[in-house]
Structure formats: C-alpha cells, structure tokens
TrEMBL record:
InterPro entries: HARBI1-like, HARBI1_dom. The keyword Membrane does not apply. Its cofactor is a divalent metal cation. GO terms for molecular function: hydrolase activity; metal ion binding; nuclease activity. The keyword Nucleus applies. Keywords: Hydrolase, Metal-binding, Nuclease, Nucleus. This is SFRICE_027602. One of its GO terms (cellular component) is nucleus.
Length: 290
C-alpha cells in the first residue's frame, strides 16, 4: 500500500480545516458547511460502511466530500486520491454510490405541480416578477460533455462538434426546477428531446391538470397557459417562443420578444448557477465513459 494512503487522519483534517472558514469550505465543495451537514444527514445511513479487522471504513462525510469535489471540479480519480488519501479504485466505487443516493433523496425537491391551482400559482409568480402572464415555466436544454460511449458512432456528437448528453430543464419564476430530464443523446435538438419526455406526453394526453385558458384582462379573449422557450422549440398551444427576425422599436412583436426573452432567461440563469456548483466539462481522458 502506498505510504500516502496510510495517512488517514489527513482526510478528517482537510474538512476540519475548511470548516474554520466557510468561504474555503464553499470553494472546496461548492456548498456551505450547513448544507453539507443537511445532505449528510439525509444520505449517511445509506452510504455508511462497517469497519473491519484490517481497516476502518471511509466515513460517510468523507464519501460525500469526495463526491462533491468530483462533481464540482471534474478532478480525476487519481487527483482525488492524493487529496483525500483514498485509493482511486475505491473512489471509483464511492462516487457512483453516493450520486445514486443523492438522486434518491433529492428528487422530491424537483416536483411538477399536481393541480391546476398549483400551476396558476407558478403563473402568478411569473407575472409578478417577470411581467409575463400565463407563463408556468421556462424551458431549455443544456449539453453536458461526456466521453463518447464505445460503438456509439455519431449518436452523442452535437452541433458544437463535441460528445454530450442533454439536460432538459423546466424552471419556475423563482429559479426552482419543476421538471428535469437528463440522458438524451447529444445529436438531438432541444425540441426533439422535449417531445420524447414523459412530461410532454402527459401534457399532450391532458394528464397534467393544466389550467384551462382564461382571459389575461377583463373582457379579453381566453388565453392558454404556456411554457416559454427559445426558437429551437416548436410553437404549440402550450409553448411560446419569440417571433423570428428583427422588429422595430415599440412594435408589439418587439415588446413581446423582450418580455418573453426576460422570462425565458430564468432557465439559462439556473443552468449558470448549476454550472458554478457542478463541472460540465470534466477532463474526458481521465474519466470513465458515462
């Protein structure tokens, strides 16, 4: 066994030292120490291992720290091995295991509204905050770079000439995900990915308790509740996108495009926030195929 792996107390010291300065802890893990403890309480029982006669098990808080560091930086397993004094073979097992448990515990926070009133509440927030009535969500896709799977050909090769999978997200006016779908092949368009989701199919089959059209102004015509997306999405009764082309200042189309763009930009901002916390671009030659 390599000598640096025997220095087990260094693992604990890393986090203890970082907790002395919350700024350093956030920089290292991308979350605050209090949020770290909250996550740890949620997943610790499921990721804890038993000590053996030969050695003590890696503690849950070190397992979580390794995973967060991996997700936030894209560091290779070899690099993480030196940082945490844990073999890269074990890290290769720890990261997927912890990720699986994080998904299991946190998916309850990504919740599609269940009733028409809940959808209307989302719409009211968009109207109050972003001055766009009858909008229940902002939708967009984000390419997450991967190492191309074996024998996949050009399936994951996107328009930027990189290999990726697509993260499709719908967010509300307060920067919260209400739906997410990840894993579509990079060659697919955002609109194509959306049309293959369970959300789209449920919407098409009238299974989402979508609110019925209602006038925006008193005595006005009934107007549908919609998602807002960019020009890549197909225009439908429940999907709005900008008018194509340039329009003169002060015209109705120019004003609508401005307000729609402002409402739609929320999902882009959410992806930006997520990108600060999670590395979208790992060093592909150092990572296993996703």
């Amino acid at each position: 066994m390599r000598n640096f792996l025997l220095q087990r107390e260094r693992r604990v010291n890393i986090l203890s030292d970082l907790r002395m300065s919350d700024g350093s802890f956030v920089n290292f893990t991308r979350i605050s120490s209090s949020d770290f403890e909250t996550l740890l309480q949620m997943i610790a029982p499921s990721i804890a291992k038993q000590d053996t006669i030969l050695r003590n098990a890696i503690s849950p808080h070190i397992r979580l720290a390794i995973t967060l560091r991996y997700l936030s930086t894209g560091d290779s397993y070899a690099s993480l091995s030196y940082t945490f004094r844990v073999s890269k073979q074990l890290i290769r097992k720890i990261v997927p295991e912890v990720c699986k448990e994080l998904i299991k515990q946190l998916k309850i926070f990504v919740k599609v509204p269940a009733t028409a009133n809940e959808w209307k509440t989302k719409a009211k927030s968009f109207e109050n905050i972003w001055n766009f009535p009858h909008c229940v969500g902002s939708i967009d896709g984000k390419h997450v770079l991967i190492q191309a799977p074996s024998n996949s050909g050009s399936d994951y090769f996107n328009y930027k000439e990189q290999f990726s999978i697509v993260l499709l997200g719908i967010v509300d006016a307060n920067y919260n995900f209400i739906y997410a779908n990840c894993g579509a092949k990079g060659k697919s368009s955002d609109s194509g990915v959306f049309q293959e989701t369970a959300f789209y199919k449920a919407l098409a089959d009238y299974q989402l308790n979508w609110p019925t059209p209602y006038p925006i102004r008193q005595d006005g015509p009934n107007m549908p509740y919609v998602l807002v997306g960019d020009s890549a999405f197909a225009l439908t009764e429940n999907m709005m996108k900008p008018y194509p082309g340039n329009h003169d200042v002060g015209t109705t189309r120019r004003i609508l495009n401005y307000r729609l763009s402002r409402a739609r930009r929320i999902v882009e901002n959410v992806f930006g926030i997520l990108g600060v916390c999670i590395s979208y671009i790992p060093n592909s030659h150092n990572h296993p195929t996703l």
